[in-house]
Write a structure and sequence with these properties.
Helices cover about 0% and strands about 70% of the residues. The protein has no helices and 15 strands. The strands form four sheets. The chain has a five-stranded parallel beta sheet with strand order 1-5-9-12-15, with no helix packed on it. It has a four-stranded parallel beta sheet with strand order 3-7-10-13, with no helix packed on it. Strands 4-8-11-14 form a four-stranded parallel beta sheet, with no helix packed on it.
Length: about 210
Amino acid sequence: DQNMVLLNDCDETELGSNDASCSNQAPGNIIGPISQTNTGTGEDSSTITQSNEIQISQNLQGTNDCDESGVGSNLAVCETHLTNTIGKITQSNLVASLGGTDVETQSNFFSVNQNLVATNDCDETGPADNVANCSITASTTVGDISQSNTASSNILTINQDGTAKNDCDNVSIGTICSIDLKLILPSFTQSGDEELHINQVNNVLNTC
């Protein structure tokens, strides 16, 4: 389940002209290659149960709300560059030849929830022009993950939440408000009865 909401709302009210440049540049919810493998060989009274499950939910929201009210003009430049990325995922259950009354039960579970919200709110409310230059570059990235087990269970849950906001009003010429936010996890390898829960939250507010 992936969700993406993008909004440009850069207005000019009263006497000035609206020459604002507002854009959400190349946003992306990206899921890398996913490989799940179950291999089992049984004989006699052997019972083999193997399971791989992956649940992924990504949310991306980018808003440019850079307004001007008054006698001045809206010359603001507001941009977002947002990406949710999930890298390579490999889950594998392998069972060799079994004999006698051996019973094998294996399971891999992988769940990811990534949320990325970015807002440029750079306004001018006085007699001057809105000359704000506001930009947000933000990304949430999950690195390579490999889970492999033998008659055991692996559970890996990752939740990343990033919020970035430029709230820069009535700025002077040459003022640049920028945020570079990255939530990155390294590669993980689990082979056996392992369970790992990771939660990253990063909220950035820039008031210039």
